[in-house]
Amino acid sequence: MLQFVTTDKSQLTAAGQARAALAGGCRWIELGACPDQARAAEELLPVCRDAEAFLTIDDNVDLVDELKVHGVHLSSASREEAAAVRERLGAHAVIGVGCATEADALALKKLDIDYISLHVEDNPDAVAAFAGIAARISAELPGVHIVASGEFAPSTLPSLVDAGAAGVAVSQTIACADAPEKNISAYSTTPKESDNMGATTFIGIIPARYASTRFPGKPLAELGGCTVIERVYRRVASVLGENVAVATDDDRIRLAVEAFGGKAVMTSAEHRSGTDRCLEAYRNLGSKADVVINIQGDEPFIAPEQIRAVMECFGTPSTRIATLARPFAKERTYDELENPNTPKVTIGRDGNALLFSRSVIPYIRSGERTGWPAATQYYTHIGLYAYRADTLAEITTLPQSPLELAESLEQLRWLENGYRIKVALNDSPTIGIDTPADLEAARKYLESHAI
Fold this sequence. Notes:
Blueprint: E1 2-6, H1 14-23, E2 28-31, H2 37-50, E3 54-58, H3 61-67, E4 71-74, H4 79-89, E5 94-99, H5 102-106, E6 115-119, H6 124-140, E7 145-150, H7 157-162, E8 167-170, H8 172-175, H9 180-185, H10 193-199, E9 202-208, E10 222-223, E11 226-227, H11 228-240, E12 244-248, H12 251-259, E13 264-266, H13 274-284, E14 291-294, H14 304-312, E15 321-327, H15 334-338, E16 344-347, E17 353-357, H16 372-375, E18 379-388, H17 389-395, H18 402-407, H19 411-416, E19 421-425, H20 436-448
Parallel strand pairs: 1-2, 1-8, 2-3, 3-4, 4-5, 5-6, 6-7, 7-8, 9-12, 9-14, 12-13, 15-19
Antiparallel strand pairs: 10-11, 14-18, 15-18, 16-17
């Protein structure tokens, strides 16, 4: 993520500078101090929205509140000041803080902020020092992104990303030179989303238990001439090749997987969730993959394009957790939407989840409930997750949270602890098998579809 800072309107309008930056690959526009900051922000906001880019404003919280832009960059802030800004702007605003030192950054521990910006000189020693600082800050402030700011040559940016920068702020003096489009496009040699994803390695892990309360032994149930678990495995392997394994606590499942040529790993029977089982399997396999994809063992129709959609989220280094959602068709009924076995998710402008719930969210204050599906776009959650390996290790240590206990949705624990969950969208149909009745529905679906 390149960041573009404009503080001078003498050469181009703010909107013109932003268009040049966005054309060159920038995804984040930061509006600094300028003679008429309010007017510049009004010019920038539609430009950023059209490009699906962020807009943050330096220090002017009043303007952020008034125009409802994505958030604010605080050039410096004490712990109390940052907390006050969060309380004022609410949970959905992006808040970043510029820190002069590592100690300044660590003083913000356990605050609800999104990123910390650190100035870095453009030389190898400074970049190496930044790597150590970024690692220590990330360990103490999980979920907070680290942005490197400065005047960097394009050739320096890959080193900064390797050093742990989730974003790079390119200063106004580079972006606003005589030919801004040319200068910004020089940074096209830096890792872009597709390039970064190509360097990212993935492993798919399919947790599968035999002792299900509602449907014991469902991974071994027959579906279209093979077991449910085999059908899941083969669909995942069509994307990830040999980088797939079933994580189980039962020898019957292990033997069945090995019988069709798959890979299985034994894990403890004491795990509270599939996420915990994924971490043990990842470690038992000795995997060095960057990202672990958790595929439900009872989703025999999981589509390859759904797996790829979640993988693509990790083209952005700042993505730590990703999941999948499906737009709810407006012609469907409220009764279908209300089903508590189909969790709903609301999604922010940055593509991250705001909230998951078994209740219908958002609640529409006016109008009959039968008309809700047509009144706004709802999204239903598909239980496919992916996590960077270090993040997976972190979230499995978290205690259960109040929202999680209330809704029985594990992902709420991560949100309550400040982690962001990127949501990929895909409308491919799936049928999860929780009960014998679901299995019969899946068999009927299979009869009418060549899958």
